Amino acid sequence: MPLHHVAVYVSDVKKSREFYDPVLAACGYVVSFAYDELVYYAPASNPHAAEFGLTLADPSKPIGSTHVAFGASSPSEVAEWYQVAIKSGGKDNGAPGIRKEYHKGYYGAFVHDPDGHNIEFVHIDVSCEAAT
């Protein structure tokens, strides 16, 4: 199962970007998309890849919480992996479905692992991406 993207929780996105923007640019990454509470970076050769992200931490939770997403080849694979995760002790954090709030063609499911980390399974329909 390939790794899709990783998000690191931070206390101040703007301050963190002051470090990550130039460091990741030197590594060949560009900002894929950014909002006040998050920013994602991708290889310049594939700016929609959004492999590494910074997300504003919930102040009521420890920053140690992590989000890891695994790429799936289809929505049915997302649903299958989600069911396996739930049956293996994962706690539901978002059943399989379209996530229009992220972007077109984004189909994902979320579970918390036994330590509370947010594990995601995601399939992106690239034909929807091309239409934007």
Structure classification: alpha+beta
Largest sheet: 8 strands, mixed
* Mean pLDDT across every amino acid position: 85
Shape: globular
Helicity, in percent? 10-25%
**Separation of the first and last Cα atoms:** 28 Å
Strand tally is 8
Instruction: Compute the number of helices.
Output: 3
> How much of the sequence is in beta strands?
35-45%
Radius of gyration, in angstroms, nearest whole number: 15 Å
Q: Low-confidence spans: pLDDT under 50, at least 5 residues?
A: none
What is the topology, as strand order, of the major beta sheet?
A: 2-3-4-1-5-8-7-6
Task: Describe it.
The chain is α+β, with helices and mostly antiparallel strands and 132 residues long. It contains three helices and eight strands. The two termini are 28 Å apart. The mean pLDDT is 85. It is globular and about 40 Å long. β7 and β8 form a beta hairpin. It has helices at 13-26, 75-87, 126-130, and strands at 3-10, 29-35, 38-43, 52-56, 66-71, 91-98, 106-112, 118-124. Strands 2-3-4-1-5-8-7-6 form an eight-stranded mixed beta sheet.
From the structure above, extract its key features:
about 40% strand; 8 strands; about 130 residues; 3 helices; single chain; alpha+beta
Compact description:
The chain is built from three helices and eight strands; from the N terminus they run E-H-E-E-E-E-H-E-E-E-H. It has 132 residues and is an alpha+beta fold. It has an eight-stranded mixed sheet with strand order 2-3-4-1-5-8-7-6.
Topology (SSEs and partners):
Elements lengths: L2 E8 L2 H14 L2 E7 L2 E6 L8 E5 L9 E6 L3 H13 L3 E8 L7 E7 L5 E7 L1 H5 L2
Parallel strand pairs: 1-4, 5-8
Antiparallel strand pairs: 1-5, 2-3, 3-4, 6-7, 7-8
